[in-house]
Amino acid sequence: MSAIATCLVQMGHEVSGSDIKTSEVINRLSALGIQINIGHNHAVVHGCDAVTASTAIPRSNIELVEAEQSGVQVLSRAAMLAAICAMKPSIAVAGTHGKTTTTSLLVRIFAEAGLDPNFVVGGDVLDEGVGARWTGSSWTIVEADESDGTHLELPLAASILTNVDSDHLDQYGDLEGVASGFQKYLRGIQGPVVVCIDDPHIAGMEKPADAVTYGFSADAKFRCHTVEATHGETTFSITSNDSATHAAELQVRMSLRGRHNVLNVTGALAMAITLGIDPHVAIAAVENFSGVGRRFEIIGNVDGITFVDDYAHLPREISAVMSAAKTSDDNWGRVVAVFQPNRYNRMAIMSDEYADAFVDADLVVITDIYASGTKKIEGVTGRLVVDAVAQAHPESQVLWHEDRESLAEFVNQVLRRGDVCISMGCGDVEYLPSEILAVRSGGQNS
Q1: Could you tell me the residue range of the domain that residue 46 belongs to?
Q2: Catalytic one among 63, 66, 112, 143?
């Protein structure tokens, strides 16, 4: 919602909003001239032309009810984002994993090429310092969220599809439902389609005849290979089998870790080159890319312990992060994973799927579920993930610490010099590294 508010105010609209507490994001929006109300008040919608809200806000919210009763147009977040996308030709990145990083890479590449794109991303692009901007450019780059079907509502000129995996099963029913949604999405793209052919669901989908494929597969038009991790960087090669791109062999160096990010970069480069951006300009942008907030973000190093924060909250994402840490050349002694499961309905359906997510971790700490607006379900706790891991890997060291309030003190006690401690999840676990650092410095846990 903050990204949409940012774009709207930079377009010249008068924008206001409501939240339940102040935050760094709120302060940033206020600095843009957006009026932020702390707490909800039905009167704030009076005089508005339109009201929009995130899907986490119930329809019974007093501001939404007042808007509907007063005749003020109420738009879903998806409809508002679609209206923004309709302003300029828009490129989207869709898929279960890697959307934010790949979208941010595209933004950096377009900026390096002098195109200064409008963008709406699901995280802060570290090079830009923000997650959204409206410049009036001829291109808009957006992250297409499938959680509530937003991706199906966007008018798009081009798209990358990264992968298809189990998630949001309350929306789609099962994995086949998720795949069907993405299949429908691909049919709605009016221009270039770039897809990761390594993904078995994407490989089986109906695709445009001129679809551009990428991946480690020998059949990919943009094939990534020869991956090496050295000095905190990753190098790899891309061989292009697409004669139209005039880019046969590309050498790429990046500060991102892991094979999953090799795929993210390859997809972004494939799209940029397909749209006519000079390959060498695109590669230079990748080399200068600082990353995205909460994507293997190194928060600090104290007492020989490295603290990393990551948004990973699905099994494949966690597995990719663990692998990136394990195969790096940072000489970390132990990989310590701290995971906060997210959403009661997600854990009720797919907690068993986390059984193999932590195989590259030396020690795993699981805390309780962060609700993210979902209702508590009796018997559904983070313990389900603990049990799944322990049953599949009896030799693993997996610890259950239910209480979020004392999590920093608990994790601090099990850490030792040489560890890398990676906090993961899309809830308030993002504050854990700073909380542990505060504990270690003798400060207050905040």
Answers
A1: 2-76
A2: 143
Check if 55 is active-site.
Answer: no
Do 326 and 351 lie in one domain? The reply is yes
Q: 3-state class of 439 per DSSP?
A: helix
Q: Residues 6, 52, 96, 100: which is the catalytic one?
A: 100
CATH number at residue 140: 3.40.1190.10
Number of domains into which the chain is organized: 3
Residues 21 and 165 in one domain: no
Q: What is the pTM of this model?
A: 0.88
| 8 Å CB contact between 96 and 284 | no
Q: Give yes or no: 376 in active site.
A: no
Residue 101 among the catalytic residues: no
Which of 52, 66, 88, 99 is an active site residue? 99
Tokens at 223, concatenated: 């094939």
* Cα four-point dihedral sign 365, 367, 373, 374: positive
| 10-residue stretch averages of pLDDT, the chain, 446 residues long | 95 96 91 96 96 91 97 96 97 96 96 97 78 96 92 97 88 89 94 97 94 96 95 92 68 95 98 96 95 90 95 95 92 96 95 97 98 93 98 97 97 97 96 95 58
Residues 244 and 176 in one domain: yes
The answer to whether 120 touches 143, Cβ cutoff 8 Å, is yes
